[in-house]
Amino acid sequence: MTVRIVVTLVLIAVGIGVMYALQDTYGGLTAALVGSLFFLFALAVWTLPVASFQRGNKLDPMQKRVIGAFLGIGLGMFGGLAVAALVPRPFNWIVLGAVALGVTIWWFRRP
C-alpha cells in the first residue's frame, strides 16, 4: 500500500511541475491539460491489482495483461506527448506514424 501512495504522490508532484514548466511556453490551458494526464495516471495506479506492488507474488495471466496494458498505454501517451512537444510541427505526425507502424510490426512479428 505504501508503494501505491508514494507512486501516486510522485506522479501528482510531477504533474504540478509539468504544469508550471509549460505554463509560460504553451499557455495555461495546454499546461493544465498536460498536467492532468499525470493526475490520471496517478489515479489509475489504484486500479492495478494489489499483488502487482508486492514482491515475491506470482501474478496470474490476467493481472499481467492489465499491468502490461497500463504500462503500454502510459508509455504511449508520454511518448506521444514528448514527440508532439519536441519535434517541429510538420514532422511530428510523421514521427508518430513511424513509431506506431514500428510498434505494430514488432507486436505482430514477435513469437
Outline the structure in words:
The chain has 111 residues and is mainly α. The protein is built from 4 helices and no strands. The longest helix is centred in the middle third of the chain and has 26 residues, at 61-86. The radius of gyration is 17 Å and the shape is flat. It starts with a helix and ends with a helix. The mean pLDDT is 83.
Number of strands: 0
Content-based structural category: mainly alpha
> What is the N-to-C order of secondary-structure elements (H for helix, E for strand)?
HHHH
The percentage helix is over 70%
Strand content: under 5%
- Residue stretches low in confidence (pLDDT < 50, at least 5 long) are none
Report the C-alpha radius of gyration, rounded: 17 Å
Distance between the termini: 35 Å
**What kind of sheet is the major sheet?**
none
Shape: flat
Quickly list its features.
111 residues; mainly alpha; flat
Topology readout:
Elements: H1 2-26, H2 28-44, H3 61-86, H4 89-109
Helix pairs in contact: 1-2, 3-4
Produce a short descriptive summary.
This protein is mostly helical and 111 residues long. The protein has helices at 2-26, 28-44, 61-86, 89-109.
